[in-house]
Design brief:
Blueprint lengths: L11 E3 L5 E4 L18 E3 L10 H7 L24 E2 L5 E3 L2 E3 L22 H24 L3 H21 L1
Antiparallel strand pairs: 1-2, 2-3, 4-5, 5-6
Helix pairs in contact: 2-3
């Protein structure tokens, strides 16, 4: 079965590998895409293509992409604009990100405590914690069933809920 090739007014041929190639539309002076320089670029196209514009000619007609530079890191901590009151190292006072010029130098500098890193549990420690919480929950449930005093039952229920939440966090 032979391939059906769409007829076009632009020159097309097949290359050595059997692919159809077509000459750029900018190969004819005064055409729609003419930019005062002749282009003799051949481009690989599909069987249905009727015309093609090479990548060089496209770049002449399209503006270059806008490159956005990265923002400059400030000396202020993250979220300083959302703090109710923040005093910079130079004494400038900010109230919810808005500078308060009349208060400059009157308040002490805001000290931000470093974030405490959480210690990650090993797999064995996690499994041991799950087992111990399971035993604790079983013990609390058995005590809750036996207990008749209202205050003691409420305390056991709170402890049971607390243990269940801890177990859910681990899983």
């Amino acid at each position: 079965m032979a391939k059906q090739v769409t007829i076009s007014k632009w020159k097309s041929k097949t290359d050595k590998s059997g692919q159809r190639i077509m000459i750029c539309q900018n190969s004819v002076p005064g055409g729609k895409w003419w930019k005062k320089n002749l282009c003799n670029e051949w481009v690989i196209v599909s069987e249905k293509a009727t015309a093609v514009l090479c990548s060089r000619c496209v770049n002449q007609h399209v503006e270059p992409p806008v490159e956005r530079g990265s923002s400059i890191k400030s000396d202020r901590p993250k979220g300083w604009k959302f703090m109710r009151l923040f005093v910079a190292t130079d004494g400038t006072v900010f109230h919810k990100g808005v500078e308060q010029t009349d208060l400059k130098g009157t308040l002490p500098i805001t000290v931000i405590a470093p974030k405490v890193e959480k210690v990650k549990m090993s797999l064995q420690e996690k499994q041991d914690a799950i087992i111990s919480l399971g035993k604790e929950i079983k013990h609390l449930k058995s005590e809750l069933i036996v207990e008749t005093r209202k205050g003691k039952r409420a305390e056991l229920a709170r402890n049971l809920t607390k243990a269940s939440r801890q177990l859910n966090k681990l899983m």
